[in-house]
Amino acid sequence: MNPGPLGPELKFVCLASCNNVEKLLISQYVSCIIILKVEICFSNFVDTFVDTFVDTVLQEERGIDMATVDTRKDKSGTITGYRFRACIARDEQGRQVWRTCTIPRPEGLTPKKEQKEVERQADEWEREQVAQYNKTHAKEDIDRISFESFVRDHWMKDHVMDGEHTPSSVSFFRYMAADLVSYFGSKRLNQIDTEAVKRYLRYLNKEATTKNGEPLSATTKQHHFGTLRNILGYAKRLHYIKEDPTADLTQKEKPHRDKKKVDFLEQEQAVRFMACMAEEPLYWRCLMNVLITTGLRRGEVVALQWGDLDAGKLELSIVRNVTLDKDAESGLHIGKTKTGETRIVPISARLCAMLLQFKKGQEETFHALILPAGFIFCNFTDPYRPLRPDSVTRHVRKFVEKNGLPDVSPHDLRHTAASLALESGADLKDVQALLGHKDASTTMQFYVGISEEKQRRTVDGIESLITKNA
């Protein structure tokens, strides 16, 4: 800022990117400073004070920090560029929204002039980022925004692609949203009421078909409805709509999945499964033992690292999950567990001893000490890269075919662990903790009455109680 008289025009320049509350606060204080400046004629001091005060008010009102500048250097230590990082806003959940930018080093300037030029570019870049964010998140179009625009410019960008969803989840939502947009299209978001939702569900039931021209399955219809509810729920949270129209539907009107029998191994089949594993290589013997005794998801199994094993406590820490990601160079995404929470799963002394034996062999294979960050079930060329989850499915399929066992998948072995836990006397809460179900209703849905033999014993017990004196 050039020193000199502080006129009203400077006040408007300062306030150009501010909201109404900020304008009012700054305007009041700048007016006082103008009077003070006239009284005491401290031009340079007042100019500096105004700059500092405006920045402070902006930070306090928006809850953000001003841009930070870091140097970028090559191997010789020479500065090659600068990296800007700034929190430009807070989202609807109060979380900070960050932006970064890297620029090449300005050429032909003295160190002092270079510093000023970098600071100028950082300030200009930050203001542009704030203005761009405010423009795309403005609520001026709240009464006119279409379903398609909201899905594209807000729901997908700020919710689905927020870094918290796995690549597979992003792909799923993008696919589901495309069908919803093709139906609702340019219809105004606030015109989608409960009646419009019911018509959409009727369309799914009566008219929508697959690529092969077949009616949609109950699961597909539920996925479409679930995505629509996710979009409208997010719109309500951001105050684009006052109420979520899906909330007024009755349970009968909502799509439901077909209830199907859960596939799992009965106790005798599980014993045979374990016996057949004796001929398997130690790698697969350990992996399938973990599947059938702990109930872990296949992605959680291949995500296990040696640091997750506590041999003293006979425990495994479940802290991550591996999923397929076609856009990643490795083809894999390593992220949080499905529920986003860490859990501790106990293991038997037998399984722990087997894993430690396997680790010893792994270190001999790679001729190196495996660090805690090494994957227990790594790929076969690098101990610090996990096995692909679909490799687990392929091996289990080949294993059951070779041994004449029931056709089960890794997820069916998860069900098997749950059914065996119930047979051994565990209650539903225990099983929920073991499997890592966030909602107890999920455990209830799949595993209540899972064992016909257990039901038979229950009926026989009731019969004996009421007929013993007959």
Structure characterization notes:
The chain folds into four domains: 8-62, no CATH class; 68-135; 147-248, Orthogonal Bundle (DNA polymerase, domain 1); 267-454, hpI Integrase, Chain A (Orthogonal Bundle). The chain contains 17 helices and eight strands. It has helices at 8-14, 20-40, 43-62, 111-136, 147-160, 167-184, 194-206, 218-237, 267-276, 282-294, 298-302, 349-366, 389-402, 410-423, 428-435, 440-447, 452-467, and strands at residues 68-73, 79-90, 96-104, 309-310, 315-318, 321-324, 332-335, 343-346. The strands form three sheets. Strands 1-2-3 form a three-stranded antiparallel sheet, with helices on one face. Strands 4-5-8 form a three-stranded antiparallel sheet, with no helix packed on it. A two-stranded antiparallel sheet has the order 6-7. A hairpin with a 5-residue loop joins strand 2 and strand 3. Helix 10 (282-294) packs across helix 14 and helix 15 crosses helix 16 (440-447). The longest helix is centred in the N-terminal third of the chain and has 26 residues, at 111-136.
